[in-house]
Structures are given as C-alpha cells and as structure tokens.
UniProtKB/TrEMBL annotation:
The name this protein goes by in its record: Putative restriction endonuclease domain-containing protein
One matching Pfam family: Uma2
Domain Putative restriction endonuclease: 16-164
SUPFAM superfamilies: Restriction endonuclease-like
Species annotation: Lentzea cavernae
Domain of life: Bacteria
Amino acid sequence: MTTARRLDGYTLDDWESLDPQEGRRIELVDGRFVVNAAPAMKHQRVADRLQTLLDAAVAREGMEALTAIAVRVNRTLGYIPDVVVTSEFIDESSVDVRDVTLVVEVVSPSTKKNDRLEKPAAFAAAGVERFWRVEMVGGGEPTIYCYELDEGAYSLVATLTAGTAGTVSITSTVSVTFDPADLTRGRR
C-alpha cells in the first residue's frame, strides 16, 4: 500500500499500488495524484450503456470494452477513462495504452478541461487510434464527438446527436450504429 507523502514525483508503480478508493477515481497526471469524485448516475448510465454496445460490437474480434479501467499511458501518467476498447482480452489490474484502440470520456462539469483537452492530447500522443467525447450540455441528451488519429492528432470524423441513429467506426474493421438518445432513455 502506498500512502501519499509528497506532492509529486509519483510513477505508475506508485499509482498501481494504491488501494482502491470507494467513490473516487485516482489518476496519475505528470507524477501527481489527481482525485476525482465518482461519476453521477446519468454519467455512469451513459458509460455503462456505451460499454455494453461497444463490447457486443467488438467481441467477435477478440476485443473487449471496459468501464473505469486504469490505463498506463507513460511513466508518470495513468488515466481511468469512462470506457476503453482493448485490442484483446486483458486480465490485469491495468491496461497498457498500446493495447487500447478507443477511449471514451463522458464529460462532467468537474472534469471538462481534462476530458476536452488534456486526455485527448495524451491519448493521441500515445497513439490511441480513436477518441470519443460525450457531452451532455445542461444535463440534456448526449452528443458524441468521434475522433480518429491523423498524423499524431485527433480529427473529428463524426458527430452523433440524440434523436438520430448514426454509424461510427470503433476500429478499422468494426463499426456500430446507434442513437445517442438510447444511452439515457428509461427502460419502460
């Protein structure tokens, strides 16, 4: 067990040795621990439903979609994205960024700077092929911005809006069609 005794200089080893904290997500950003509150219910519902949809789409390829899994980006950077798609089944406590093909972040008021700027830049620099950002402006229906890596940076390739089914690539060989409104609708 690691107990924080300094402000920075932490590594992936320190991060991975932390005990899980109920109701919190602890990420490693430039050698510092950053603590975020657990997501709100609507946020988590969107992430869970996206994970289910993505997992069903990539399963036949031997890939897997997971929620809230630790991703090792570099020696001093480890994130816990809302959803990741891995290139294969992973049975470890964390995933190496080289095994991630898609990252999905559901933007929260407290994490919007990281979700919109810092995380996409870090995942693009690490070579993750695709990044999706889910925005729920004013707590409304989700809009999904889908990006693909292009010469080391993400380029917007699709925008999915609630009320309209759209098709978007998960990998170069797998795509999925869905209406973002289905991610927040009641079940009855």
